[in-house]
Amino acid sequence: MLIGLAGTLSGCGESVTKRADTQDTWSTIKKRGTVVVGLDDSFVPMGFREKSGKLVGYDIDLARAVFKLYGIKISFQTIDWSMNATELRNGTIDLIWNGYTKNPQREKVVAFSNTYLKNKQILVSLKKNKINSFNDMTGKTLGVQSGSSGYESLENNPKLLKDKIAKKTPVQYDTFTNAFLDLNAGRIQGLLIDSVYANYYIKHEANSADYNETQGNFKSEDFAVGMRKGDKTMRRKINAGLKELKRNGTLAKINKKWFGNQKVEN
């Protein structure tokens, strides 16, 4: 009986994988009139909730603008970010659109749109801790978000920072908001984080002058939309939509709204 159950579960897993890799769902989504986008709703300025609970952000505006071209509405679904690919492949969501970094490891299971924004990982600390380089984190405690591109960069390039920190192991957080709380309280001395998040967060803090940002040698990153490999039509539509928003000036307006005069690379 147990053997039979194991076989059934294995078969279900295989069918989910096969469906995600081969089924093109665009016609179904078009008929339904709604596409489900998964996100971490605490990732400022890409997708986050205001005090009122309203969901706002760069990616929120961009996603809505793209699908408005096709007459499709968006349902934003908050997910456990460390489970984003699983939620995508099992059909809970249709897209991952929330400052999602394209990399070879993720490309093994997820298809990506063209890059729509450049990003990089930086080390944020309090100026009073006098951390001005990665070497200054030697023996100190580092925070990072679970499942984030920062965590992957840390693990894939241990000599740059991981091997220097206390116990060679970072403290993992479910959200950057909680990580900043611990940074401010002195429970961690550094936070490896996306530059777009850090710049926006610090800019809107009353004590913004208390923070220090340190550049390291991690490679720059490409933000792109993640989707199931079978959704080839979806990929073409999103790429075409992003191209049109750049052509008609909508992308520039969204850049201006969320980043002001800060130079961004699309």
UniProtKB/TrEMBL annotation:
Stretches that traverse the bilayer: none
Pfam families to which the protein is assigned, alphabetical: SBP_bac_3
InterPro entries associated with the record: Solute-binding_3/MltF_N
Domain Solute-binding protein family 3/N-terminal per the UniProt entry, residue ranges: 34-262
Keyword field: Signal
Top-rank taxon: Bacteria
PANTHER family (UniProt xref): ABC TRANSPORTER EXTRACELLULAR-BINDING PROTEIN YCKB-RELATED (PTHR35936:SF34), MEMBRANE-BOUND LYTIC MUREIN TRANSGLYCOSYLASE F (PTHR35936)
The name this protein goes by in its record: Amino acid ABC transporter substrate-binding protein
